[in-house]
């Protein structure tokens, strides 16, 4: 009787296939270890197709070949540096899009270079070309493409970008979204104290007139660099000091405005802080007033903004 009951219970257990479980693991965002623990827990009441552990190991093996670690010598101080980077990221993005049943034409690849906690990182997000379709950003969809414990310097970023070889694909368009300092670096421009520091146009530093300056293009940056290379006087060639390293394969007529997203937060932090500093100088009660209002305007935040502003100014 007991044996018959046991047999019946085993047969009446709901069963989960390996494929079904792998899909659930991805949707729930479970790590391999957590998924294994979960399977052990539910095996009493649910039948899970055998071979789950091996299947997970195979997935991990498949993804481990996506990354490489290479040793380089820093051109800054000849020290050794190790770079972890994504092999053939464009193929990877293509495969993601086909898995989602989407086409590259509906998407843009948003790239971001930044330094934080001692690491220089290049990351990428697939975002919808038309923002109204769906929000597709968010940390879960951010792919870390390259990382290394090195400084945010032109020479280092150049090495990392060369390893990724990003703009080789015909279909997927890229743009950059990052802070102003890093924009100037990848454009090969001088810092924000240069004669023509703007990445978008040929504005002359300090000029307050309403003239519309010529807009910068990828081709313009490249030819400015070529001329600078033969006659190294940056101010004569629109403050270009180095070879531009953003999108080297892309059409020279593309405007920088089309491929470098205006960093709103960065700019607003600077302007808000500037106004705050002036108010504080003229009206001492500003500090008390601001502490009762928007927390972003409090003293400590203002000091942090000032640091960002100083970095942005390149001084
Ligand atoms: Zn400008």
Structure notes:
Mean pLDDT is 80; it is low at 293-302. The strands form two sheets. The chain has a six-stranded mixed β-sheet, with helices on one face. A two-stranded parallel ribbon has the order 1-2. With 315 residues, it is α/β, with parallel strands linked by helices. The chain has twelve helices and eight strands. Zinc ion (ZN) binds next to loops.
Spell out which ligands are present.
zinc ion
**Number of helical elements:** 12
User: Runs with pLDDT <50, length 5+?
Assistant: 293-302
- Structural class of the helix and strand makeup? alpha/beta
| Total discrete domains | 4
How would a crystallographer describe the biggest sheet? 6 strands, mixed
Distance between the termini: 85 Å
> How many beta strands in the DSSP annotation?
8
Element-by-element helix/strand order: HEHHEHEEHEEEHEHHHHHH
Write the layout of secondary structure elements.
Blueprint: H1 2-12, E1 14-16, H2 18-28, H3 32-42, E2 46-48, H4 52-64, E3 67-73, E4 80-86, H5 89-99, E5 107-116, E6 119-128, E7 142-148, H6 154-164, E8 173-176, H7 180-187, H8 218-230, H9 256-259, H10 264-282, H11 286-291, H12 299-313
Parallel strand pairs: 1-2, 5-8
Antiparallel strand pairs: 3-4, 4-7, 5-6, 6-7
Helix pairs in contact: 10-12
Bound molecules: zinc ion (ZN).
Question: Could you provide a short overview of the structure?
Answer:
This protein has helices at residues 2-12, 18-28, 32-42, 52-64, 89-99, 154-164, 180-187, 218-230, 256-259, 264-282, 286-291, 299-313; strands spanning 14-16, 46-48, 67-73, 80-86, 107-116, 119-128, 142-148, 173-176.
């Amino acid at each position: 009787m007991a044996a018959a009951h046991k047999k019946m219970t085993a047969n009446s257990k709901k069963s989960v296939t390996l494929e079904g479980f792998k899909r659930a693991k991805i949707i729930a965002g479970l790590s391999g270890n957590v998924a294994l623990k979960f399977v052990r827990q539910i095996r009493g009441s649910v039948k899970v197709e055998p071979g789950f552990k091996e299947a997970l190991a195979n997935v991990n093996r498949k993804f481990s070949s996506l990354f490489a670690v290479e040793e380089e010598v820093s051109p800054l101080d000849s020290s050794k540096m190790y770079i972890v980077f994504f092999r053939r990221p464009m193929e990877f993005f293509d495969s993601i899009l086909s898995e989602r049943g989407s086409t590259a034409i509906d998407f843009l690849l948003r790239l971001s270079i930044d330094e934080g906690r001692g690491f220089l990182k290049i990351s990428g997000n697939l975002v919808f070309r038309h923002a109204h379709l769906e929000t597709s950003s968010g940390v879960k969809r951010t792919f870390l493409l390259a990382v290394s414990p090195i400084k945010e310097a032109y020479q280092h970023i150049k090495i990392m970008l060369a390893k990724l070889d990003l703009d080789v694909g015909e279909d997927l368009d890229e743009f950059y979204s990052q802070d102003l300092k890093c924009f100037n670096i990848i454009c090969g421009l001088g810092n924000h104290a240069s004669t023509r520091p703007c990445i978008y146009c040929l504005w002359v530093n300090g000029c307050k007139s309403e003239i519309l300056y010529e807009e910068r293009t990828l081709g313009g940056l490249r030819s400015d660099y070529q001329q600078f290379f033969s006659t190294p006087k940056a101010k004569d060639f629109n403050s270009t000091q180095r070879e531009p390293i953003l999108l080297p394969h892309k059409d020279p007529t593309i405007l920088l405005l089309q491929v470098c997203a205006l960093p709103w937060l960065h700019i607003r932090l600077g302007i808000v802080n500037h106004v705050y500093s002036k108010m504080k100088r003229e009206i001492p009660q500003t500090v008390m007033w601001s502490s009762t209002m928007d927390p972003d305007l409090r003293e400590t935040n203002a000091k942090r903004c000032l640091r960002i502003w100083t970095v942005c100014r390149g001084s």
